[in-house]
Amino acid sequence: MLQLLVVLIIAVGAFIGIYLLRSSQDIREEAAPSTSLSMTTNTTLIHPGQSFSIDVNATPGNNQVIGVQLDIHFDPRYINVSDVTLGTFLPGQVDVVKKEIDNVAGTIFYVVWINPATRVYATTPGLVATIIASAPFSSSPSTSVTFGTGTLVASLEDPGNNVLQNTTNLNLVVGTPTPTPTSTPTPTRTPTPTFTNTPTPTFTNTPTPTIALRPDLTVFIPSAGVVGNSLFTFTTTVSNNGTAAIPSGTSIRLHTAYCTTSGCTNPNNSLAL
Predict the structure, then answer these.
(1) Which secondary-structure segment (H or E) carries 5?
(2) Among 63, 96, 153, 219, which residue has the fewest nearby CB atoms (within 10 Å)?
(3) Can you tell me the distance from the alpha carbon of 76 to that of 139, in angstroms, rounded to the nearest whole number?
(4) Mean pLDDT, contiguous 10-residue spans, the chain (273 residues)
(5) Tell me, what's the pLDDT at 185?
(6) What's the pTM?
(7) Is 255 exposed, middle or buried (0-12, 13-18, 19+ CB in 10 A)?
(8) What is the rounded CA–CA span in Å between residue 155 and residue 35?
(9) Domains of the chain
(10) How far apart are CA 235 and CA 138, in angstroms?
(11) CA distance linking residue 188 with residue 173, whole number of Å
């Protein structure tokens, strides 16, 4: 009986040992690195001054992921990072353990973690984080955003082991600045001048002034024979106030009422003007 008991104890111990060994092997196989990380963006052509975002995605494979540490590098001459926001890849209560952005060195250090005691983990692909960035006013035919050697993925099976299998970096082209369209002003039409006809001036004949002599001035007609209604020249006679009646050499037509063919018969009354 004693020998049989010893044999049974040895057999049970061997069975338990084999079971534990297989369980340990299964755990180690499940904890083998199979998680991949990648970066994507909605456009790979970035214009200087343009804002854009970069998504960091995880595919866990066979791993039960509870934490991700991102070590990302970029060229600060062509990319400027303003923020990193948490994605939905990790379930439950997620802590952002560290978020450091250095636009001088061109680095991002971002760590998110789930407490292993909660027994919550990620097994389906999802968004780990989103990088908010913009392009400074410099162009480059090609620039890359890459995962550094500090990038790690922790699993529930073996929290101390990095289960990251591979990474996919992002290549961008920073083009020339998009020109700002300048509106061409619409020319203003110059109005055609309207010509107004200038009325032709109407000339009014100025009447010849009639010379009116004072009543006390008398013109004396020479005694030579003059035919009535004739035109002749006479010499001015000065009136009693010393003023010439009319200028010498002025032609005047005599009226027949005062003169005849033999001359003016009454010089004192002749042609008072």
Answers:
(1) helix 2-30
(2) 96
(3) 12
(4) 42 40 47 94 91 98 97 96 98 95 98 87 98 89 95 92 97 74 65 66 59 45 48 47 51 46 49 42
(5) 64
(6) 0.56
(7) exposed
(8) 10
(9) 32-174 (2.60.40.680), 215-273 (no CATH)
(10) 112
(11) 44
